[in-house]
Amino acid sequence: MRVGIPRGLLFNDFSPLFIPFFNHLGIETIVSDETNRTIINRGLEIVPAEYCFPIKVAYGHVDDLLKKGADYIFIPHIANTGKPTSGYKYSVACLWTQSTPDLIKSAPKLITEGLIQNNLLSPSLFFDWGLNHIEDQMKKTIAKMGYNTKNVRSALKEGLVNKIKFDKQIENKTKDIFNSIQEKCKNNEPIFLVMARPYTAYDANVNNDIVNKILDAGYLAIPLEFTPIGSIDISKQMPKMYWVQGQNKLTAIELLNANRNLFGIDITYFACGPDAQINQQMRCRTQKPFLTIEMDEHTGDAGIDTRLQAFFNTVKSYLGIGFEQKSKVFNVKLKGLNEIKGNKILLLPPMSKHNDALSAVFNAYGIQSRVLEVSSDETLERARSCTCGLVCTPYLHTTEAMLNFMQKPEFDQKKFAFFQATTDCGPCRLGQYASLESLLFQKKGIDVDIITGGEVDSEFNLGLSLLIKVWSGITAVDQLEKMRMHTRPYEVNTGASDQIYDKYVKSLLDYLADSKTNHGKMKTLLNIGKAFFYNLFDTKLSPIEEILRKAQSEFSEVKRTNEEKPKIGIAGEFFVRLHEQANQYIISKLEKKGLETWLAPATEYLIYSYYINSVLAKEKFNLHRKKKYLREW
Ligand code: SF4
Predict the structure, then answer these.
(1) How far is the CA of 277 from the centre of ligand 1 (A)?
(2) Which of 4, 120, 229, 282 has the greatest number of CB atoms lying within 10 Å of its CB?
(3) Domains of the chain
(4) Do residues 595 and 567 lie in contact, with contact meaning Cβ atoms separated by under 8 Å?
(5) Residues 208-247: tens digit of each pLDDT
(6) 570 burial class (0-12, 13-18, 19+ CB within 10 angstroms)?
(7) Whole-angstrom Cα distance, residue 608 to residue 87?
(8) Residues with CB under 6 A from ligand 1
(9) Does the interface ipTM go beyond 0.85?
């Protein structure tokens, strides 16, 4: 029985753990060849969508293992690497890295090459959950292969000891290597810090041989892993960075700023989601010349050589000038609602009527609030002009709405604050929007407060009563939207459905904004009880149910044609599917083509998030993650 382990992605970080692990259990491991032209070309042939270059290469490595006759292929879902950079709480892997097993499974060309989905070993590993969880997952993996799981714990111990040794060796080398640059500094020579992830920095075929090019030019190149970034804590200045490689890159900027002769060369890839955010944040903190090279399979040597040469020249002039004009370093400034309540008006980015419902409830609870208008500039020029790289559409739309408002005569940073959604542990880019907006606005000289919503009990602790009212409001908006979508395609009198919709959305918002309708503690608890034990409560409709019933009755009276129309389901990214401009009015376009639409409700995303969190919480609970128990390791 041979288990294949592909190179690339997190191989460098975790092969010191997993290869001894399998070997301890008497399972032979085979590793794919080092990246070469054949592997790259196969990856490009197999990849079913436009991912970043390292992911494309990952397909080639799996193909190589299939050709080598691996019985199983081991690619874990590593959601959290367990070792955040100094001061940070989370060490999240990028979304595509996390989901590589699913990406691999969905490549039809790999299946025709012999990939059997059941033979893909892909345990979900959260290294921050503790080793009992890793043991549990690895036991399931080994059992799937038909092996006895008795020795899994000792195998894991051996793997862990080896990984700790490996990490320690790097740490020991770090001091020597970093000290060696002092000699170069004395001679005023530049040293280049290669800011890249391990799967790119150490793979010449993935990084276009950039490290050798620096060495061939006669300069010293140091990879991130061999710098003392572990001893620098920037988590207060850049609090929301949950991707571990983002933490490393941002921390490395401190080293560049503190060491006159050290210059950063950042390697990134077209379509890299995290770097589209991280690179801009780095630029708001760097104080000296800095090179970003973005590449993919089409990038040629000549382009890289030219850019490197130009950068070497810039650096030489910088060192030759003798005086330093340092750029300002910006820190992310985010606030909680409690810091502006009563003295500022909270502005929510536009998305759909759900945001109006949220704003109405804020007002009912004494947080002055309103929803920003959509910018009339469909090209989103304001947002694009202060952003570089391929940031995502929701970021551009929300930032554009804020910048648009800043142009208005009524804008006063002392009077208004912007709301931006966020997450504390990613994994997608949403959690970075507020940070980047904070930095970019400061860079433009605008010191406006940005209010975020993160973990419950942190800056966005609003209380159960408010949250239940928000939930009722957005659920009701979903229902009204559904009634409209079910009626409008068939209406005889154009505009009848929109009129009813507008009328009842207004009734709903008036109700939500009325502080007299806020629930006290008892009513809140009764509401929760009603959700679970409906039969035990009286059947009297709540005011929101009454609004919905009346709307339903009016929608049912709309004069309809007798046509039968195909119904199209619209799912997809939460913000884009709800924001008319972002989805380019897809619903009305489909209706004009003679179709009825069904839109995944806004609450679907929230319910799924709560569901998945409850599944994970249950799993954690079952593991009895008690310190005492963990000490066995
Ligand atoms: S971090 Fe960027 S380059 Fe690396 S796998 Fe994720 S998207 Fe690709």
Answers:
(1) 12
(2) 4
(3) 2-165 (3.40.50.11890), 175-321 (3.40.50), 337-453 (3.40.50), 463-556 (no CATH)
(4) yes
(5) 999 999 999 999 999 999 999 999 999 999 999 999 999 9
(6) middle
(7) 30
(8) 52, 54-55, 94, 96-97, 197, 269, 272-275
(9) yes
